[in-house]
Amino acid sequence: MSFAQRFRYPATYSLQTGEAWRWKASEYWYSQHLATWGQQPRGIFGADECIRPGYVDPRQGFETCGMVEFAKSFYLLGRQSGDPRYADRCEDLMLNHFPAAQTPDLKGLHYLTASNMPQLDAFERHDFYNDGRELSYSPHAYRCCQHNVAMGWPWYVENLWQATADGGLCTWLYGASTVSAYAGSAGGQVTIREDTDYPFSGRVTLTVQSAIGTSFPLYLRVPGWCRGLRVALDGEPMAVQAMPGSYVRIERAWTTGDRVEMDLDMAVSLTQWPRTGSVTVDRGPLSYSLRIEEEWRRCGGSDEWPEWEVLPTSPWNYGLVIDREHPERSLTVVDSGAAAAQPWAIGVAPLEIRARGRRIPGWELENQTVQALQPSPVRSHEPDEEITLIPLGCARLRIACFPVIGEGPEARQWTSAEKPDA
């Protein structure tokens, strides 16, 4: 019986080296095809039932059930290959888009989520593949998503920790948790408690409880976005080579009370989208959206299980005034402290980023859908304003792909689009 087969805990799985062609073929398909339809932060793309030529703007939606199933594929690929990029992709989906697909009380969901979506109404003729209500939240509609959504967080939690083929344990997805498993060549029982406010903070503490002298390797995943990692063992800094998209391996005889402390550097950066020149603000595993104030309007259901539209009560049509080469100079991170028990809501976002923006008066809704992005830089004669960005997962109403404001001769005037998404 293999080491992996000896596990009897649902929260632990085996990280084995699978057949290379399986995950390399998947990676090729992802990079060659989904990149064409992407242009949205954190792994979603225009897939409102069908991938359609020309419909590649970040206003195009991604199905809620697609998020859960897409993440499941990455869990499986990660177990087969051991490649940490699949953990990055799970976090992309589940920490940025999945929370906004549901109401904060988890009683309702909507069918489609997009990165630029400043209004969630019950209108039935949006520019999506199907007609019908797809943006308002409901406990009853969207029957395929109702089944899949229930497995989103349980599957994520089941994959926080992985067993490794050499008898070790791996922090594959970061999150406050406790794991109990058999580890090491002797199969000793080990419990590790993970304390963290990840993904809002990069500080992670792992506390070990085990029989004296239980020896096994502990793997710490270094996310692909991480450009700096500090590790301490029982208070003593460790010299580690922590390349982005790799693992730090610590093998020793562990005893109860051993403590590993990690600090993953979460620097602010920009993703620049080649099709339009728009940008997304990123920090660590999270991308950020404009904070748009919300009006929740009842549109059906019962008092116990209501259906909701969410409408904007503040402007949303901003472009960023930003230095593309040095974004940190014009972005200020504001940390409000520890995350709430339910952090995925506009009023309790534990992190905000202050930025500068200008309104783009011509950027409006068309057919109740946000107008597609136009090439940046964009000219605007409106005054600079301080705007607030919040994590995408906290933003049900969202603008995450921003036009960039420009002043020079290359800046364009925003115009009415003749053909959506062209």
Instruction: Give the proportion of residues in helices.
Output: 10-25%
- Using the alpha-carbon principal axes, give the shape: globular
Structure classification:
alpha+beta
Q: Would you tell me the overall average pLDDT?
A: 89
How many helical elements? 5
Beta content? 25-35%
Describe the structure.
This protein has a domain at 161-264: Maltose phosphorylase, domain 3. A hairpin with a 4-residue loop joins β7 (177-183) and β8 (188-196). It is globular. The chain has 5 helices and 28 strands. The protein is 15% helix and 32% strand. Mean pLDDT is 89; it is low at 1-25 and 418-422. Strands 15, 16, 17, 20, 21, 22 and 26 form a 7-stranded antiparallel sheet that branches. The chain is α+β, with helices and mostly antiparallel strands and 422 residues long. The protein has helices at 20-37, 64-81, 85-96, 143-149, 152-158, and strands at residues 14-15, 62-63, 112-113, 116-117, 161-164, 169-171, 177-183, 188-196, 203-210, 214-222, 229-233, 236-237, 246-254, 259-264, 268-272, 279-283, 286-290, 294-301, 306-312, 318-320, 332-335, 351-359, 365-366, 369-370, 378-379, 385-391, 398-399, 412-413.
Structure in a nutshell:
This protein is an alpha+beta fold. It has helices at 20-37, 64-81, 85-96, 143-149, 152-158; strands spanning 14-15, 62-63, 112-113, 116-117, 161-164, 169-171, 177-183, 188-196, 203-210, 214-222, 229-233, 236-237, 246-254, 259-264, 268-272, 279-283, 286-290, 294-301, 306-312, 318-320, 332-335, 351-359, 365-366, 369-370, 378-379, 385-391, 398-399, 412-413.
